[in-house]
Amino acid sequence: MIEAEKLTKYYGDRAAVQDLSFEVQKGEIVGLLGPNGAGKTTTMRMLTGYLPIDGGRAVVAGYDVVEKPMEVRRRLGYLPETVPLYTEMPVRAYLDFTAKIRGVPSKGRNRRIEEVMELCRIADVSEKVIGKLSRGYKQRVGLAQAIIHNPQVIILDEPTVGLDPRQIIEIRKVIRDLAGNHSMILSTHILPEVSALCDRVVIVNRGRVLVEDTLANLERQGSNAERLRLEVRGPRQEIQDFLSRWPDVVEVEIPTNTTTASIDSQGNLAPAVEQEDEAAEINSDGVSNARFNLKVTPSTDIREALASAIVQQGWGLREIGLVVPSLEEIFIRLITEDLARLEEEENEGAEDFEVLDDDELTSPVQVRAARDDDELDDPEGRVVDSEDELNSQDITRREGSTPLNARQRVYPVAKTPEQAKRKAAPSFLTASPKDRSSKPAAGDTQGAEDDQNSTASESERE
User: CB 3.0 to 4.6 Å from 40: which of 56, 187, 324, 396, for a disulfide?
Assistant: First the structure.
């Protein structure tokens, strides 16, 4: 029902969404998950036709969003993060108005309005003015307007943001009631919401898809068969020594003073915080419930044998199982790894610049990489590759291009790691060829003379 193929959207020179692809099948609820700024809202606005697509293709209910926008809108219901309501209108009048502009036939319009109000649980406020309703009721009215024309596809952007726990539960019930008859995309950064409502999840960060899979597969892939979680009632030190001697147990870890990252209520990745010691609980009789994490030999399953041995020792086995991370842990791991990878790529691909006083250039220098519209050649057609050669040769440019002086053709090279971190080039290097040739910098008389000499040389050759 929804096909997004390499969707791309730029705001200025920044890519908010880049080569983003995923699909939503009929009757499926897909969670679009990511921290704030990941590109979720931008993606939804492109799918609805609210924003133009800079690259790629989007198909909704079999119609291309760009080529058939009106056909898409007839089959699409959209609830943006900021609900579009006429707050001076009563609920019923507002839904009647939206039903008319959505093309709901007059013959069955009143019946459809009643059905939607009952489904969204707003029938008891049907005659109240929208502006006087609570935020939870306003959210349900917004959902009602999105489904009033019984669309095939529903797109919900942060449907429970800002609601209290009771209101969140009510909205989730409405969404679950819609499942099966509609294909839905649910954008959120609330992880329990994804687990409660969605069949599949698409995790995005910085406008790119990191993972697209079912929740079951994500948990299965994140589980670690080589690590066990264990809780035993008994003397903690004796249990630890016993586990350390057990065959196939490589390491016994005590989960104390662990650190974990988290995602806050606003969808931002929060820094790691230290947790309290949770390795053991002391009961009233002085015996502890000790917790351990066991690292075991790969391709081995010691759970049955270990459980039997613990019971034979007279200790109480409270829990034994594989370490299976939660959706929150999987999400945080994926986002953290992606951020680290992007930072590493940016550091590797950064240009090295050194900016000195009086705008001086240092040695050695590098001639700017030649491009089709900016390539420097000598009369024999060789590419200039040093400043000395640049100053000594009678330089020409390709036909139709504007000559530049030598000072504007080179990039300085940083000498220290601290200087290498600077990514901004001197201003004269980022100026356009037209500005650099027609408006030499003040005091740069030598550069102006080089321009005149280069122009004169071209005239003589012609």
Answer: 187
